[in-house]
Structures are given as C-alpha cells and as structure tokens.
C-alpha cells in the first residue's frame, strides 16, 4: 500500500505531472522512512545516476520507495555533466535538460537517423580544449564550430528533455545499406518479454536481422555468473526450471517458450518496425546470461557487441544458415 501511494506521488512529480499528493502518501512516507533507513538511504538528499542507462523499471521501483533517481548525462570530455535532472525537473526515461549555459543540439543525418533523432552534440565552456598531444583525434570529436560530437544518438523533446536512444558506433548497416539503431529495438523486445534478461540484435551486412536472447536466471553472487535456474517472470512461462530446458523448448515450434518469444517479435514487427529492413526474422535463446565475468558486458553493464558476437559466433552462423 505504501509503495503504491509513493509511486502515485512520484508520477505527479514528473515533468508535466499534476504535482498532487494524496493524504495516504503523507502516512506512507512515515512507513517508507523506515524502509530507507534499513537500506542506508535515510540521510540521502539526492540520488544521482550516470555512466550507464538506468532502466525505467528500476527508477520506478525506487520511486515507489519515495526515492527519486535523478539522471545525469555527459562524458569525461565535457568535464562530467551536460544534462542534469533535478528534484524540480525530471522525467522517467530522460536524462534531463541541458545544464546551465551549455548548448545542446541533435545532428540528424538523413539516411542514418530516424526523423527527429541524431547524434547528440554539445558545446560550452565545460568542453575540453582537446586530447593532449593528439590534434587528429581532437578534430574527430570537436568540429570547427566547437561542437563536441558525443557518439550517442538521441532526441530532445518539446520540454527540452534529452532522450538517449542508442550509439552511433552501435548502428547496424544491413546488406541493403539501411542504418538501424539496435538499442531501441532491443529495449522494445525486453519490454514485451518480462522473462527476458538481455537481447542482442545482429544484422550488420546481412540480408535480415536476428536476435540473441538470454533469460532471467539467478546469479551466483561469488562468481557473478548465471546459475542457470530460471527466476522471476522466466520461471512462469512454462514448466522449464533451467535455462538449458528453456533453450531446448524454444527450438520446438508451438512450445510455450517459442510462442512467448515469437509473439513479442511479431508484435514488434507489426507495430514498431518502421521498415521491412528493421524487422526481426529469427531468434535464438542462449544458455546462461550476458555478464561482465563472461566478457559480454562492461563494468557498467554495457553490451560489448563485437565480443558477444565472437563468443556466440556459432549460434549466429546457424541463424543465417
């Protein structure tokens, strides 16, 4: 009950929200104060998050504990932050507005980006002078007008809030020459499939796109690797108790796992793919999960696409056979 009241109040605090608070929320705060003390956050004034994308469901969970996670975005080359969410101005799914006098724009390239999207660029006194003794690399990142090209893809909404949708370097260029940002597609599939832990889209220089999928499993806290035992929503899809059993089942047409995943892919293809080139044709479920120890993820849990593709090259090859 208390979490539900806090979640309602948190939605009201979002940019564009009503700002209203129920009487129940005032009582819920007393309960949640004890919860925050139990997890060591009772003295925390602001909770900032940066370095890696914060899943919306994580932000919403902390909001239900009456804790707003405020997203900050930037890079070392701009002395830290360029956008900054505050108590007064924040919104789930965004990293906030430009900080102070910093300028920010979207460099949209026709044929590479979706309408309204493009590379995030910014300039201001917070931008570095350049890389030490490396003028060539500096010129690659900072143009003649002083704009720092971040390599991130995003869109600025009508309220000036920045949404990050992918990375320039992560773009997939199909055999037909179409540029596809895989991250929004991967996030869409995960949103449609709560039982899925990680998704990697493959399709560079290929005639069609495929997905590598891992399922939610319990993690061994000592090794940091998957135990193979299905957890959460993944444990409810079928009678399969382990990822190996689910992998086998996913290869059987009409089985619970195959139907569950195919239904999500069909939904994405029919409602979200903006062209035939962006549609998903095949998928494979992998045993285990992507992890830092396994080599597929960085320390900030970003996907190492080239490494993951190399590790799972045999599976990818079968999907294109």
UniProtKB/TrEMBL annotation:
Signal peptide: none
InterPro entries with a match to the protein in the record: AMP-dep_synth/lig_dom, ANL_N_sf
GO cellular component, one term: membrane
Residues of the AMP-dependent synthetase/ligase domain: 47-131
Coiled-coil residue spans: none
A Pfam family this chain is assigned to: AMP-binding
Keywords: Fatty acid metabolism, Ligase, Lipid metabolism
One Gene Ontology term of the molecular function aspect: long-chain fatty acid-CoA ligase activity
Name of the molecule in the record: AMP-dependent synthetase/ligase domain-containing protein
Organism expressing this protein natively: Calcidiscus leptoporus
